[in-house]
Design goal:
By secondary structure, the protein is mainly beta. The protein has six domains: about 120 residues, Cadherins (Immunoglobulin-like); about 100 residues, Cadherins (Immunoglobulin-like, Sandwich); about 100 residues, Cadherins (Immunoglobulin-like); about 100 residues, Immunoglobulin-like (Sandwich); about 100 residues, Immunoglobulin-like, CATH 2.60.40; about 190 residues, no CATH class. About 10% of the residues lie in helices and about 40% in strands. The protein contains nine helices and 57 strands. The strands form 18 sheets. Strands 25-26-32-31-28 form a five-stranded mixed sheet, with no helix packed on it. A hairpin with a 5-residue loop joins strand 20 and strand 21. The longest helix is centred in the last third of the chain and has 28 residues. The radius of gyration is 53 Å and the shape is flat. The two termini are about 95 Å apart.
Length: about 850
């Protein structure tokens, strides 16, 4: 009965709370990967707890093992946690384009008793582990010169084995050179794949370019995407649209009447830009050629060579005109016509015969010599033969060339020598022609042509295009970030022109760059502008010749600043900062100077100060650029009170960074006008601000001059009684110094006043005396005004001793209050500051904020 009740309860739980679950697991995970907690996710154990002990519950994966395939998942019997049983491969488990999942039946039992059956859906998530694949790496297609714009040739598409919709989604891109007249066309078929084609955008001209190579890039939609490249070779099918062209339209040839029939009198040559049969040329006499001429000459239709058919005899025609047509084999064929004028010389006169013998090996009428050959070196021996008599047999030869010359050895004998130094990098091939001509009438000449190839030696140092390469990159980039290319050239051939690059560094300085053999410089770490903003080093380039030649170039890498540092206040150094101000009409305007710093540079460190809150009365203003805090107008008694000001400092970078600080100003307004306003500078660890020191010196000099003049007048005008009184008050002032010891009052010496450092007594044995003096001062000066100070006893009041001086200084130190933990230093402007107790040490001032000995420098005072 208990088991039956339990089954009913769990069935109700199954219906009400939808215990069927869906889990997701990525393919490729190792066996034993955790998928989910069935018991926890269905709250099954919480539901059965009132009925039975949860330790008696068992979970079983019900599997149909009919195919013999090992199970993909396993479930922990006691805990109900689901794991993978093997590495899952979505491509082998599921079809393409559908959600890959498996349904699991999990039986929940108590012993052998059935409790419920859970149906679990496990979705196998596809990962981008396959790249798109074209059937072939390259294909060949053809376009004809006759194809019109828009003609398309189909190409195969790529396939991706991934089953996920995104990972198997393929996009295509055509990669080609600029101005290549092709585009990629795509259309989707009913199967959901793309039909690809290469479309012609402009008419083709095979004579301009007969082949193209483009690439089709297939990318899937995975992250990161994977791709495959199909190389498409496009050949342009020729159309017979060019006629054969002779090198000249009219040829003039002179032959003797004893010309050898086996030697051609002329070789005609015509060229056709078309390909295949469209460019194959046959020669034949045209109908314009007379029968007499065709009977005397024969034409080789394949080579264009013209021969004599029979020996010429005296009395025959001395001039023949041959009209020869060159016809290509296209359909339809095209042709052109040339005229050959043959002049037969009736007298015996033969041209010279030139025989050239080379010192170096001759291969296909070409001689190879090294570029370091010396001037005057012997190249070839030339012998000329002409057996004609008289002037017909007298021969002169010449060679016109800037690197080689023909030197006469004897009659009809010459040598070819090097005239000037050779430089393969300037010119590696020379064509030489030796011309020889007799003195017959008309003169006959012969020529011998040959080529000289200059072999390379490693004689050129690698050269850079610049004396200094300057690169600029921003800080905080990733490692292996490209910096730039260093490019050098070496016209030498072979290993002498193969270059390698390296960085020149010393062991003292670390260089965060690397360079490849092709001159590409990249970083090996992220760089920091604030750590170092410029790097100067050299790059060495070497060729692989023997011996190896090298060169160096200067490289400058500037690290540009990014706004990655937030400004911070250096004064006030605590937040919030408390300051007491005693305002004297007509003399008090400037309060203090806010100071901030930013580790960045340039505009990223250009700071601007603003008051953000607490200035509802518009009583205060801060200079946006200097940080000087001052009053905006004359302060009245109604303005007295406490002001909680908040300030912000912003840099000028992008994005803008800022810092805030708070300052509590306690403003007391004096109802009397001070005759003079001096400032007291409190030093911290004997370190004094330079600007403050300059101000103090200027004030001290001014006060000394005025005081000296004033005292001189007083000495003349004042009587002995006044002098005695001043002496008595001066003695009282010195007693103040002796009683306070650690408190140094303004010292009077001669006729001038000088500033002395202000320190605060902190000794335990002086605490009681300090509290008594503080109580006396506070009772006589409850309004914090100068009038209250005048009522103090002479032993505590230095005011009376100098009240008749126009230039004066005033320092009143209020001992620390044990409850409030604050100190007050009063000046004629009554600038004072307080800071709450804190045990946090201020490392920059070497004291604890709020301690009895706290001294702070007020910038700008």
């Amino acid at each position: 009965m208990l088991i039956y009740s339990l089954t009913v309860a769990i069935s109700a739980l199954h219906i009400c709370h939808c215990v069927d679950l869906t889990y997701y697991v990525k393919e490729g995970k190792n066996p034993g990967t955790y998928i989910g907690d069935i018991a926890s996710d269905t709250h099954l154990l919480d539901s059965v707890r009132p009925y039975i002990d949860r330790d008696m519950i068992r979970f079983t994966h019900l599997q149909q093992d009919l195919t013999g395939i090992s199970q993909l998942f396993r479930v922990a019997k006691k805990t109900g946690k689901l794991y993978t049983a093997q590495t899952l491969d979505a491509e082998s488990l599921c079809a393409h384009g559908v959600e890959c999942l498996r349904m699991l039946d999990i039986a929940v039992r108590k012993g052998t008793s059935f409790i419920t059956l859970l149906e679990i859906k496990v979705v196998i998530q596809d990962i981008n582990d396959h790249q798109p694949k074209f059937p072939n790496k390259q294909i060949n297609i053809k376009f004809s010169e006759l194809d019109v714009i828009g003609t398309k040739r189909k190409i195969p598409n790529a396939k991706d084995r991934d089953v996920g919709t995104v990972n198997s989604q393929i996009s295509y891109q055509l990669k080609k050179k600029i101005n290549e007249p092709f585009s990629l066309s795509m259309s989707q078929n009913v199967a959901g794949t793309s039909d690809l084609g290469i479309t012609l955008e402009e008419r083709l001209d095979r004579e301009m370019k007969d082949s193209y190579q483009i690439q089709v890039i297939a990318k899937d939609g995975g992250s990161p995407p994977k791709q495959d490249i199909l190389d498409v070779f496009i050949s342009v099918v020729d159309v017979n649209d060019n006629i054969p062209v002779f090198s000249q339209k009219v040829y003039n040839v002179s032959i003797g009447n004893d010309h050898n029939k086996n030697s051609p009198i002329i070789i005609l040559s015509a060229k056709d830009s078309d390909a295949g049969k469209n460019g194959q040329i046959l020669y034949h006499f045209s109908s314009e050629t007379s029968d007499v001429s065709t009977s005397m000459f024969e034409l080789n239709e394949d080579t264009g060579e013209v021969y004599l058919r029979k020996t010429l005899t005296l009395g025959q025609t001395l001039m023949y005109k041959l009209y020869i047509k060159a016809t290509d084999q296209g359909n339809p064929s095209l042709s052109s016509l040339a005229k050959v004028s043959v002049n037969v010389i009736s007298q015996q006169n033969n041209p010279p015969i030139i025989d050239v013998n080379f010192v170096f090996e001759l291969i296909q009428n070409m001689v190879s010599i090294s570029e370091d050959i010396e001037v005057g070196s012997f190249i070839a021996y030339v012998k000329v033969t002409d057996h004609d008599a008289g002037n017909n047999g007298e021969v002169s030869c010449d060679l016109h060339h800037n690197k080689f010359q023909l030197q006469n050895l004897s009659t009809k004998k010459y040598k070819v020598v090097v005239k000037n130094l050779l430089d393969r990098e300037t010119e590696d091939h020379h064509e030489l022609t030796i011309n020889c001509q007799d003195r017959g009438s008309p003169p006959l000449h012969s020529e011998s042509k040959f080529s000289i190839k200059v072999k390379d030696i490693n004689d050129v140092q690698p050269q850079f295009f610049k004396e200094t390469y300057t690169f600029r990159i921003y800080e905080n980039q990733r490692s292996n970030f490209p910096v730039g290319f260093i490019n050098a050239t070496d016209p030498d051939q072979g290993s002498g022109g193969q270059l390698t690059y390296s960085l020149l560094t010393d062991n003292k300085h670390f260089l965060p760059f690397q360079i490849r053999d092709d001159g590409f410089i990249s970083t090996i770490m992220s760089l920091d502008h604030e750590f170092k903003h410029i790097y100067k080093f050299q790059v060495l380039v070497k060729d692989k010749g023997t011996p190896s030649l090298n060169n160096t170039v200067n490289v400058v890498v500037e690290i540009r600043d990014q706004n990655d540092n937030t400004p911070y206040f250096t004064f006030p150094s605590v937040n919030p900062f408390i300051m007491n101000i005693l305002y004297y009409p007509h003399y008090t305007k400037k309060i203090t100077v806010l100071k901030a710093s930013d580790s960045d540079s340039r505009e990223n460190a250009f700071l601007k100060y603003e008051i953000t809150s607490g200035n509802d009365k518009q009583l205060f203003t801060v200079n946006h650029y200097t940080g000087s805090l001052s009053f905006t107008r004359v302060v009245t008694q109604q303005d007295a009170g406490s002001y909680d000001l908040e300030f912000v400092v912003k840099d000028s970078g992008s994005p803008v960074r800022s810092a805030t600080t708070a300052m509590t100003l306690s403003l007391t307004v004096s109802n009397k006008t001070s005759e003079m306003s001096n400032t007291v500078h409190v030093k911290t660890e004997d370190k004094i601000h330079l600007n403050l020191a300059v101000v103090i010196v200027l004030v001290a000099v001014s006060v000394s001059v005025i005081t000296t003049a004033f005292i001189s007048i007083c000495i003349i005008r004042c009587n002995e009684r006044q002098n005695a009184r001043q002496k008595e008050e001066a003695n009282s002032f010195h007693r103040c110094v002796s009683e306070q010891r650690h408190l140094m009052c303004p010292s009077y010496h001669g006729d001038s006043w000088t500033d002395a450092p202000v320190t605060i007594a902190t000794d335990a044995d002086k605490a009681k005396d300090a509290h008594l003096r503080a109580a006396t001062i506070e009772s006589h000066s409850a309004d914090d005004s100068a009038e209250g100070l005048k009522n103090l006893p002479a032993s505590l009041n230095p005011w009376r001793s100098i009240e008749k001086l126009r230039q004066m200084q005033e320092v009143v130190v209020l001992p620390s209050n044990e409850k409030s933990g604050k100190k007050t230093i009063m000046t004629p402007d009554y600038f004072s500051w307080r800071s709450p107790k804190s045990s946090h040490p201020d490392n920059s001032h070497n004291f604890n904020v709020g301690d009895t000995g706290h001294r702070e420098e007020i910038p700008g005072m």
